[in-house]
Amino acid sequence: MASINDIMVDITPQVLLKAYACGIFPMAESAEDSALYWIEPERRGILPLDSIHVPRRLARTIRREQFEVRIDHDFEAVIDGCAEPQPGRQTTWINNRIRSLYGELFDLGHCHTIEVWNQGKLLGGLYGVRLGGAFFGESMFSRERDASKIALVYLAARLKHGGFSLLDTQFLTEHLVRFGAIEVSRETFQRQLDGALLGGGEFSKLPSDCGGAFVLQLVSQTSNTGCSTA
Questions:
Q1: pTM to 2 decimal places
Q2: CATH number of the domain bearing residue 74
Q3: Domain count of the chain?
């Protein structure tokens, strides 16, 4: 993995978007470290939108629609959740500079959240960056079983319906592999990214009130039409 300290560079939202277009993203060593590092993995995780696998038990949960899925409702709450300790991860890389930068991207319409709620409580979700026809997943969290997985399925449906062609996961995890995520070389990723940037993606095209059954149908098919809860 290549990394370059940004100590000589003032990172702005515009610089950040240019970095994403070049296949680079920032991370911090810890929440206490104010420095950011440019990361360019030699092997990149992606989730192909035309071959997503939704586990059967999770599909049943989504069809039951026990949760409310909100889009771009509470960015601060989502990034707070992503910064919380999780099983297997007791520390976070989300420092104050990350919070500020992605908050600015959110205000500019380039950062989005998928949030899973129940009875007024945020149970899980994710956030990431939209640029052209590419979506760069940044982080996700769960406070209840399956919450982040539900968010991921709803994200995939939204990207497919909106005409996106690339979902970048940065790295592979066991969680993502179950959904069909794969690893590609840096060169292959950049080619796919260049193609995605030439196209367009409309994040808001999918209505926010689509039912779980339709979301699952959308994820599993190559092409789609309008939203239907039937």
A1: 0.91
A2: 3.40.630.70
A3: 1
What's the first-to-final CA gap in the chain, in angstroms?
47
Q: What does R_g of the chain's alpha carbons equal in angstroms?
A: 17
Does residue 229 fall inside a structural domain?
no
Domain that holds residue 215: 2-220
List pLDDT tens digits, range 156-171: 999 999 999 999 999 9
* 8 is a domain residue: yes
86: tokens are 């999780």
Per-residue pLDDT tens digits for 13-24: 999 999 999 999
C-beta of residue 26 within 8 angstroms of C-beta of residue 13: no
Domain assignment present for 226: no
Tokens of 180: 């069909």
* Strand 111-118 with 121-131, pairing: antiparallel
Helix 56-64 crosses helix 212-220 at what angle (to 10 degrees)? Answer: 140
> Is 227 among the domain residues?
no
- b/e string for 75-87 if b means 16 or more Cβ within 10 A? beebbebbbeebe
CA 56 to chain centre: 22
The contacts of residue 83 (CB under 8 Å, 6+ apart) are 31, 92, 94
| Distance separating alpha carbons of residues 180 and 52, to the nearest angstrom | 5
Give buried/exposed letters for 34-67 (b at 16+ CB in 10 A, else e): eebbbbbbeebbbbbbeebebeeebbebbeeeeb
Q: Is the dihedral of CA 54, 55, 56, 60 positive or negative?
A: negative
Can you give the length of the chain in residues? 230
